[in-house]
Amino acid sequence: MQLYKDQTLKVTNSLTGKKEVFNPVNEGHIGMYVCGPTVYSNVHLGNCRTFMSFDMIFRYFKHLGYKVRYVRNITDAGHLVDDAEEGEDKIAKKARLEQIEPMEVVQRYTVDFHNILEQFNFLPPSIEPTATGHIIEQLEIIKEILKKGFAYEVNGSVYFDVKKFNESFDYGKLSGRKLEDMIANTRELTAQSDKKSPQDFALWKKAEPQHIMRWPSPWGDGFPGWHLECTAMSTKYLGETFDIHGGGMDLKFPHHECEIAQAEASNGNSPVNYWLHANMLTMNGKKMAKSTGNNILPGEIFSGNNAILSKPFIPSVVRFFMMQAHYTSILDLSNDALLASEKGFNRLIDALDNMSGLETGVNTDFNVADWKQKCYDAMNDDFNTPILIANLFEAVKHINLIKEGKENITLSDKELLQQTMNSFVFDVLGLENKNDGHQDSDKLQGVVELLIQLRNDARGNKDFATSDKIRDQLLAMGIQLKDGKEGTTFSIS
RNA sequence: GGCAUCGUGGCCGAGUGGCUAGGCGCAGCUCUGCAAAAGCUUGUACAGCGGUUCGAAUCCGCUCGAUGCCUCCA
Fold it and tell me: What is the CATH architecture of A305-428?
């Protein structure tokens, strides 16, 4: 199903600052690279938001019938704690603090990352390469950049020469910065530096004797610079120019700017046609970050074990909450917002469950085909999931009205509605039906049904003291009875 | 300090020149022994001040406020 032939997708390209019609390099195929996590601590919810945005984008591409190669890396080396020349890297620091091997750190938090993403129902990327697995590729790029004259070696380290690069290319085109401004605004560096200019960045850092993570190179033992791995891995798996590069807004500068510079310096090509940036998840109005401690772990949300939460929330509710905001907007996390999303999510899923039982008739009271296209229009407009969800609730309203016999639907429209709803809710948004797979034991079911019978007997005898006691005490245990036209049902929270 | 982004009804959150999403809450109604649950119905809001325009939440300017990046960060 090559739906993409019938749909015109527009994306916000950070490189131009505009919404542009999306056309891949090779028709029907998409190469997408997303900067993954540095695995030196547990992934927090803010990290998850970015990856979830691109998971949704990946899902929509697939839904449209594209063949997508989605590469999301694991950074397991090379990111420095700060810009100081001594430059300990984060993973090495964590390894030292915990007195374990750096690769144990990497393993521990990679497993955590995968575990959390699985709970959020992420689709795995096509390739998940690691930085340490691509040292040779990185060395080759450094050699190439040196050969082209855009880098220089000092004391066993290699730096990218930003000024030199800017003479032939445009450094700052992604983030809207001008090199002259950046130079003018640079404070004097007091520490002595090997760099010719503060804007220069490391391609290769010499490893001090105490540095654990090290590899041999033409310039001595060392480790790769912060930005190089993404250039190496994206080029290797997606080519010198590919369709989409994504990542968090906070990576736009300097990380993505440097990636462009490295690629252009080494092979002359602008590496990416469409740069997509996902915006930050905030908490208390401030960006979530590992370094500041202003963050919340997914596990804390699932267990409710955090001071800002009044109760636990299942992964799909969190996903739904995030999908209710556009991926380019800042989103603030709060208990109230999650509670509101939870109610909306439950209403959506309940309507979905009710769809199959709808009675069909000879006419339909709303235009299902038009509604379906509206759903696509929303997604085609830069993946506007909030508008998509608004349309889904439009369908929820009709489903409920049909269920109550106040509106009609034909069999073919019902099938179209069902198929479209399922596609968008489960395939594109990646939500999961909370009612599936959580069957409580038969015994519990039987016990509650017995109590419902006893209560109904009491009600028949107008013994409301007994019937209300059963109802209220069950509720106190988290079992809610729901009296409906066709009898009493219950839900267990 | 420099460069950006944002400020929408009680809350969350779309929209970007006229037709004014959606969710949650509140209220009303239906249902019920009473409730709860569920369902339906309902909201003319766009920080402030000027300007452009027949017409602006939407464009321009200024003011105020918030955030992000400029150092590792999704």
Answer: Orthogonal Bundle (1.10)
